[in-house]
Structures are given as structure tokens and as C-alpha cells.
Automatic annotation (TrEMBL):
Keywords: Plasmid. InterPro entries: MbtH-like_dom (IPR005153), MbtH-like_sf (IPR038020), MLP_fam (IPR037407). The lineage of its organism: Bacteria, Pseudomonadati, Pseudomonadota, Alphaproteobacteria, Hyphomicrobiales. One of its GO terms (biological process) is siderophore biosynthetic process. Residues 1-51 form the MbtH-like domain. Gene3D superfamilies: Structural Genomics, Unknown Function 30-nov-00 1gh9 Mol_id. The gene is mbtH. GO terms for cellular component: cytosol. This is Protein MbtH. The keyword Disulfide bond does not apply. SMART domains: MbtH (SM00923).
Amino acid sequence: MATDDSEATFLVVINGEEQYSVWPAHRPVPAGWSATGFSGARAACLEHIDTVWTDMRPLSLRRALAGNACA
């Protein structure tokens, strides 16, 4: 199955740095990633990511910057 197949189902996944991606639903989610509970067509998953991923910086960078702001 091609990953651009409009009939395929995808999962929205997230890693420990709170970075999002789409993943084919028929494949196991890779180590280090977790399903968010949202699934659907690739375009719908990408729209969902656009809505929920408002800060593209990795979590570790956000935490480091927040720590420096308090210093």
C-alpha cells in the first residue's frame, strides 16, 4: 500500500519530544512514538496536526528556554 493512498487509514503519532507525525495504521507504531487516538485519511491527520501542534520546538528546547527565563 502506498503511503499517499487516499483510501488508506493513518494514525497521528507523537514522540517524547512532543513532535507529531502520521503513520500507516496497518503498521505497528515505531519505538519511541505513541498513537494519539486520532486516525483517518492522511489529509485529515495532517489537518489535525496543524491544529494541535502549535509550537514546533522540541519539548527539551521549550523546557530549556523556560528554565533560562527563570534564571
